[in-house]
Amino acid sequence: MVSESAPAAPPPEPAGTPADPGAPSSEADIAAVFRHEYGRAVAVLTRVLGDIDAAEDAVQDAFTLAVRRWPSTGLPPSPAGWIITTARNRAIDRLRRESGRGEKQLKAALLQEALAPAAPTPEEHLVAELSKEGMVDDDRLRLIFTCCHPALALNVQVALTLRLLGGLTTAEISRAFLVPDATMAQRLVRAKAKIRDARIPYRVPRGAELPARLPPVLAVVYLIFNEGYSSSSGGPGLREDLCREAIRLGRVLAALMPDEPEVKGLLALMLLTESRRPARLAGGGAVLLSEQDRSLWDRGLGREGQELVRQCLRRNRPGPYQLQAAINAVHFDAPDAASTDWRQILRLYDQLLAASPGPVVALNRAVALAEVEGPEAALGLVEGLGLGNYYLFHAVRADFLRRLDRPAEAAAAYVEALDLAGNAADRRFLEARVRETGAKRAMPD
Amino acid sequence: MAQYLLSVYQPVGPAPAPEVLEPIMQDLEALNRDMKAAGVWVFAAGLHPTDTATVVRQQGTEVLITDGPFAEAKEHLGGFTVIDAPDLDAALGWAGRLARATTLPIEVRPVQH
């Protein structure tokens, strides 16, 4: 039997990026460093400066400088170290400028001393600090618990985490939430002001506090994963980095809280979903689960997810993440779509619907029901769900109609889905379906 | 250290019967003692009902006095406590005890400094 006390340890990650140091760096290199290092840098600087706004300003200053310098100098040996050191120096400059004298100047002096006491250079000191095991993870955990503090509204928690830990732009976040950019920008400004003025602490809650503080963190990590998996930003389609970041945060949480089955469940769910990534796209379009080339699935990620699901089953304290992970584990078990155990999946969806009722779960359950009892019964179930603004509702409904040989209605539903889909890969898939069903509709009887 | 205003919101209506109010007042006294012992207590007060309130406002060059309260609402400020606390979590901990003692919702707001 596999020991349950051995948590999936996060693999060591280099602080740098895959790009060659010293080589001339392109905009894409710098963008990659930004995505990799923004959250890490903001987390470290927030601890150092004690203020998120100041940390963000400093990190943004550092990246602005990087954009000017790196194209000619190439990437420094440790881009993360460079960004953090530069951000710290910028923060000290800012504090000096803003303060004639008094508290801020004192703070600047203390900051300089605290950070570079005996180290030969501040950069070496910081690089050493970065490589200390757990140090940066702790900073990122602290930051995520601050972002997901219950004194902040859920939509604010998600937006803050995506902004501060995921490095998403305000525009990307506002697209994900379907709100105007200005609204999102104001929401973020207010949230950071509340953290500062109400003094929401920058620490990981322990002991009795933890059970209440954990669910929002898990919800936020899963939303980050989903943003990466089915990115709403039209651009480069899939944001693999976001998924990796969410999985990385999931591993850290699972290692930190080995007795919380929902943490394991969330990690398993993300791993099993991620394992299908290599088969999800073909020719720039999304590929349905039933039509994916399963030999492309990442067996390593999938098996790791399945093992976590087994550990959860032994615990027998099911929750929504564990149930969703179990559903994905059933898919992973099937060598091909035809051998999928849909009855088992439907049973798991029944449990999931009882544990966390909602129209989206009901929609997914209907997909399983269509496999067990046929699309007619499933179509009747989804009509009243009130999901008219959700593109997947129209796509699922279209699929049922297509299978019921009602091509005109199916084509109309695909068009509705297309109008609402933000992701280019999904749009391509839907466009193909519109063409197919449309062609069928156009054919004479 | 920061200061936080813990406001007690109570429904409009007659005061609870003495046998209900008595244990609440005892719990509140005990909480105030604990706050003082912990060095967090700054000030606390209970307020008379809103029908004792008067509103004063400037209108042009004059000051206008009217019968209160300022806004009619289903809940109103029934009392408040000001505490010193290192951060919001500490303040929320005390606010939780105040909510249990009063059985009423507490609004926690940081004081500008």
Give a quick set of tags describing it.
heterodimer; A: 445 residues; mainly alpha; two-stranded antiparallel ribbon; 21 helices; 2 strands; globular; B: 113 residues; alpha+beta; Alpha-Beta Plaits; four-stranded antiparallel β-sheet; two-stranded antiparallel sheet; 2 helices
Please give a structural write-up.
The complex is a heterodimer of chains A (445) and B (113). In chain A, helix 10 (210-229) runs antiparallel to helix 11 (240-256), helix 16 (342-355) runs antiparallel to helix 17 (359-373) and helix 18 (375-383) runs antiparallel to helix 19. Chain A has a two-stranded antiparallel ribbon. Chain A is mainly alpha-helical and 445 residues long. Chain A is built from 21 helices and 2 strands. Chain A starts with 26 loop residues before the first helix and ends with a helix. Among the domains of chain A are: 7-132; 136-258, no CATH class. Chain B has 113 residues and is α+β, with helices and mostly antiparallel strands. Chain B has one domain (2-110): 2-Layer Sandwich (Alpha-Beta Plaits). Chain B is 31% helix and 39% strand. A 4-stranded antiparallel beta sheet of chain B has the order 2-5-1-6, with helices on one face. In chain B, strand 3 and strand 4 (62-67) form a beta hairpin. In chain B, helix 1 (18-37) runs antiparallel to helix 2. The termini of chain B are close together. In chain B, 17% of the residues are buried. The interface between A and B is small, with 9 and 10 residues.
Could you provide a short overview of the structure?
Chain A has 445 residues and is mostly helical. Chain A has helices spanning 27-49, 52-73, 79-98, 103-115, 122-131, 135-147, 154-164, 170-177, 181-197, 210-229, 240-256, 261-274, 277-280, 299-315, 320-333, 342-355, 359-373, 375-383, 391-403, 407-420, 424-442, and strands spanning 281-282, 285-286.
